[in-house]
Write a structure and sequence with these properties.
Layout (H helix, E strand, L loop, with lengths): L2 H4 L3 H6 L1 E7 L2 E8 L12 H17 L7 E11 L6 E12 L3 E9 L5 E12 L5
Antiparallel strand pairs: 1-2, 2-4, 3-6, 4-5, 5-6
C-alpha cells in the first residue's frame, strides 16, 4: 500500500487528495484539480482549498499526537494570495506549537512552480481520550 493509500479516508477520496508526506508535526498532500473542484469562473472553489489545508494541518497535528488522544479543528483562518487554477496543487501543514489542550498549525497551498497561492493558520482542540 502506498503512503497516499495508507492515509486515505472516504473524505480524502471524495476530495481527490493524496498524502505524500506525514511525519511528526508535518504533512504534504497533492490534489489534481478537475472540473468538480472549480467554480463557474474556472478557479478552485474556496471550500476545496480550505478542505485541503484543514486536512494537511490536521494531519500534522494528528501525527504529532499520542495514539489515545483525540482532536478537532477549532479555528481555521485562510487567506488567498492568488487564484488557484486547474492543475496539481500541493497543501502543506506544520504544527508550530502544542499545548496540553490545543495545538497550533500553519500551512500553505502551492502551485506546480512552488508559488504560494493560499496560507492558513489553525487551532486544534486536543482531548486526552476519546470524548463521549
Amino acid at each position: 500500500m502506498s503512503e497516499g493509500e495508507a492515509d486515505s479516508t472516504p473524505f480524502h477520496r471524495l476530495l481527490g487528495a493524496r498524502c505524500l508526506v506525514r511525519e511528526n508535526g508535518r504533512s504534504r498532500y497533492e490534489l489534481a484539480l478537475g472540473p468538480e473542484h472549480l467554480n463557474r469562473r474556472g478557479v478552485a472553489h474556496g471550500g476545496v482549498v480550505a478542505s485541503l489545508l484543514d486536512t494537511a494541518m490536521g494531519t500534522a497535528v494528528v501525527w504529532a499526537s499520542a495514539a489515545e488522544e483525540w482532536w478537532g479543528t477549532m479555528v481555521l483562518s485562510l487567506q488567498f494570495r492568488g487564484p488557484v487554477r486547474h492543475g496539481v496543487i500541493v497543501g502543506e501543514g506544520r504544527m508550530v506549537r502544542r499545548g496540553r489542550t490545543a495545538a497550533f498549525a500553519e500551512g500553505e497551498v502551492l502551485d506546480p512552480s512552488g508559488k504560494v497561492l493560499a496560507v492558513a493558520h489553525g487551532v486544534w482542540t486536543i482531548w486526552p481520550v476519546k470524548p463521549s
